Amino acid sequence: MRDRPTGPQSEEDQAGAPALQPQPERRRWPREPASQGPSRSVAPPALTPMHFSTRELRPAEQFQAWRAHMAPLVEVRLADGIPVEGGFVADQTAWHFGNLLIVQQQAPGHSYLRPQAMLRASPIDHWYVELLRSGMTWTEVDRRVTENSPGRLAFRSLGYPFRGRATAADAVLLFMPYELFADDAAVLGETNNLVLSGNLADLLINYINGIEPRLDRLTAEEIPRIVHTVHDMVVACVASSARPDGAGAQTNKGMMERAHRYIHLNLHSPGLTPDAIGRAIGVSRTRLYQLFEASGGVLNYIRRRRLQQAHAALSDPADSRPIAEIAEAAGFDVAANFTRAFSHEYGASPREIRKAAAVEQRPVAPVAPAGRHRGSTIGDWLKALGS
């Protein structure tokens, strides 16, 4: 048997065999990936989850803990005939995006009520989107009941009274402060307690589904982009799903949204008075007070809004203004009055909030006042929105 030649083919081989196609050169080492420019280190996750659960409590204590946790937002009750001693295993995990709070919630069946009396004492008038994974909810606003079911979105304001009931449900809730939608008053003013539908609603659901498994990996650079995208998608969904409403309710809600927007744009102006607001939106002083009756009056609403802005400033490590200057911008000429009002609202003094932000190098959520059950409530999470 003859060895195969290792050099160029002989004339005999060339004559007796068909020409061979040149073979590609074989690499001995794996191919290096193409350079994509300077390498970048992976940014660390920016979100820290906040948890609430009744699982570790005795069954007889679980519902009372849930009631205390939800008290700043709604009054909750068990259905008739359901004993408190039977247990109430509920879980919430919240993710704070600054201008967006995403809450993953699992809870047994219960009823809920947000009465006018609660609105008078509450700084919470956020919009929220309810996406159900399982279960059902029925919510009544202005004698109109909205039914929500798995795979659907409900859009609702916390600035108006409502009541309803829910079966055992798994849900994702998106809470957004009014200020985020201040420029969209014309679109949102008539759409409270609305089920969002159509292709745009389906796209928003897909977007939420895409965000949820990545919440623990999102970076600081990505968060504002997500908030901006959620805002735009919500406005688009609401605009395409809006229904005609009664003339009276339409007038009231439209005026309320215009008043909110005017306050937002002039929040730090010394000329922000009930008379100025009334002139701007074209209503009398008496009518303006009627519009803000559920919020405890227009001056109380302005005061809470200014305290929220002060909290946002104090919890921002990049804001180095003296506390006295922030207090003055919030309408307080006396530092002691500002400290007292701020501490009552947020459960921590202005100095404590600023110190915590300096240590963590990022905005901080309000601290729950002493004596509250198991730390922060959902109200504390919501008060931090906008920070």
Record keyword descriptors for this entry.
38% helix; 14 helices; 387 residues; 12 strands
Tell me what the structure shows.
This protein is of the alpha+beta class. It has one domain (50-383). Helices cover 38% and strands 17% of the residues. It is built from 14 helices and 12 strands. The chain has helices at residues 11-16, 59-70, 116-121, 185-188, 199-211, 223-241, 247-265, 274-281, 285-291, 298-314, 323-329, 335-346, 350-360, 378-383, and strands at residues 50-53, 75-77, 91-96, 101-107, 110-114, 127-134, 137-141, 144-148, 153-157, 162-166, 169-176, 194-196. It has a 7-stranded antiparallel beta sheet, with helices on one face. Strand 3 (91-96) and strand 4 (101-107) form a beta hairpin. Helix 8 (274-281) packs across helix 9 (285-291). The model is unreliable at 7-15, 246-250 and 365-375 (pLDDT under 50).
Give a quick rundown of the structure.
The protein has 387 residues and is an alpha+beta fold. It is built from 14 helices and 12 strands. Strand 7 and strand 8 form a beta hairpin.
- One letter per element, helices H and strands E, the order comes to HEHEEEEHEEEEEEHEHHHHHHHHHH
Identify the quaternary structure here: single chain
Total of DSSP H or I helical runs spanning 4+ residues: 14
β-strand percent reads: 15-25%
- Sheet bearing the most strands, described? 7 strands, antiparallel
Estimate the global geometry from the Cα principal axes: globular
Which radius of gyration do the C-alpha atoms yield? 29 Å
- Distance separating the two termini: 85 Å
Strand order of the largest sheet: 1-3-4-11-6-9-12
How many extended strands? 12
